[in-house]
Automatic annotation (TrEMBL):
The keyword Mitochondrion applies. Residues 71-159 form the GIY-YIG domain. It holds the Pfam family NUMOD1. Residues 31-47 have a biased composition (Basic and acidic residues). PROSITE patterns: GIY_YIG. It comes from the Eukaryota. Gene3D superfamilies: GIY-YIG endonuclease. This is GIY-YIG domain-containing protein.
Length: 328
């Protein structure tokens, strides 16, 4: 175990992230370099290997979360600063999964106890601990580590204290069972970001490329950075247990829906307005962007949230730092 504490105001991030990545490399290489003759027989209570990272003020330090969790798998623990409330979860795509908690559309579902808590109290009184596992870890091992922390920490915001590889903490519908049984690769789950309803399951990324003509870089950015595709679809390698319901559409309907959203998106964005991003009390750090997309990409933020600040629907400064206005 290696333990890192990140706080963007007090710790030189690049140096620490490099150190973190070096430790992850050492963990992964240690498995590859073992002499077969020296391997010990598997034990039932195998010790888990991971790098432990604590991120203070996670809502305002999402850039740190991205740097340490992109393309990583493991377990995450939300905890209030007083230690009274806690939630344990797992993911094979940590940044995508963790970033979904910050999305108003999923918070507003209030589908689970943890969402109801964050929806009511926000993230200002919380911290995030991330346990990053070897990149060779399989889903069973990731879920095993989650179960270890559930048993150890006894988190009160977890409704079910039994970790599940399916992502569901209730009986899975036969429809989902039949779909998962046919899969050969790593499935890609497609959600409507408006209410986080699961609407389609692709057998693999390759199938998504071919069926809905999504570019591989675009899909990877959606999966790795939490980007919302066509302002409508959220893609995940994990089943989002907070999803309030499942409404799987047939392939023809999915193709039609994506085509309709793409047409609207293509019409809307070429005429995008320039945006001035003013940094609080430091005009020298002001930036100008030619579209909402480029702004959201630079700040690694959610377009819907940023749009709320642009329209004045959300008061104050974005992440406590930025004020946005359209340039005339």
């Amino acid at each position: 175990e290696k333990y890192f504490i990140f706080n963007s105001q007090t710790i030189p991030l690049v140096k620490e992230v490099n150190s973190l990545n070096n430790n992850l490399s050492l963990i992964n290489e240690s498995d590859n370099n073992k002499d077969d003759n020296n391997k010990k027989p598997k034990q039932e209570n195998k010790k888990h290997t991971y790098v432990k990272v604590l991120v203070d003020d996670p809502f305002n330090n999402r850039d740190i979360i991205l740097k340490v969790t992109k393309k990583q798998k493991g377990v995450y623990v939300w905890e209030t600063l007083d230690g009274k409330h806690m939630y344990v979860g797992h993911s094979i795509n940590l940044y995508n999964r963790i970033s979904s908690y910050f999305m108003p559309s999923i918070l507003n579902t209030k589908a689970r106890r943890v969402l109801r808590y964050f929806n009511k109290y926000g993230f200002s009184n919380s911290k995030l601990t991330i346990y990053i596992m070897k990149d060779t870890s399989n889903l069973e091992e990731v879920v095993g580590l989650e179960q270890h922390f559930i048993d150890t920490l006894k988190p009160n915001l977890n409704v079910d204290l039994v970790a599940s590889s399916s992502g569901y903490h209730e009986p899975m519908s036969q429809e989902i069972r039949d779909k998962l049984r046919k899969q050969r690769g790593t499935p890609v789950y497609m959600y409507n970001v408006k209410d986080f309803t699961l609407i389609y399951v692709f057998d693999s990324k390759q199938q998504a490329y071919s069926l809905i003509n999504i570019h591989h870089k675009t899909l990877n950015d959606c999966l790795n950075l939490g980007n919302i595709y066509l302002d409508t679809f959220f893609y995940s390698l994990d089943i989002i247990e907070e999803s309030p319901e499942t409404n799987l559409l047939d392939l023809d309907r999915i193709k039609t829906l994506v085509s309709e959203k793409r047409n609207v998106y293509d019409v809307k964005h070429p005429a995008a307005k320039s945006i001035l991003a003013e940094f609080k009390d430091e005009p020298k750090k002001n930036l100008e962007f030619n579209s909402l997309n480029s702004l959201a990409k630079h700040l690694k933020g959610d377009r819907q949230v940023i749009r709320g600040y642009l329209k004045g629907d959300k008061p104050g400064y974005y992440r406590g730092k930025w004020k946005f206005t359209y340039k005339i």
